[in-house]
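Methods — Computational structure assignment.
A single polypeptide chain was analysed. Its primary sequence is given first, followed by the predicted tertiary structure written as structure tokens.
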Amino acid sequence: MPLVTTLSGDIDIVSHSAAQTQRLGARLGALCTGGEVILLEGDLGAGKTVFAKGIAEGLGIRDHVTSPTFAIIHEYIGRLPLAHVDLYRLEGSDAALGTGLDDYLRADGVTVIEWASRAGGVFGDDHVSVTLRHLSETKRGVRISPHGESSRNLIARFRHEAFGV
């Protein structure tokens, strides 16, 4: 997988398959220690749920992970609890907070939010943004951007574990 690291600490990766995208998520999930908020963005079919499945795998979750589009939030138990949130059907921070999202943002587990931009800026200063984009039918561009000290430390560990740099 080609890797490019920017001066801001962002990581740009080309994933060549859904399995590779899931493995990236699993590497990140394995490094989580609790309290992480991971925001996923990208067009329909870009791989957000695949990446979330990988995070669940990295947390040791054995349940079948699906997109919570209609339920809004799915909870899973593994090494750490995972709240998998999908805000596709919501618009605005009030609607997002009305789901009880703020309780998960303060939790000791891991919160993964698909379509995070639909909630405005309710996520605080420390989170990881993951943007997935179509490059071809099977390839995806994955940009991982840390925001805040804890997230920068997490992504530095991820970079070292995944790529040795």
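Note: The radius of gyration is 14 Å.
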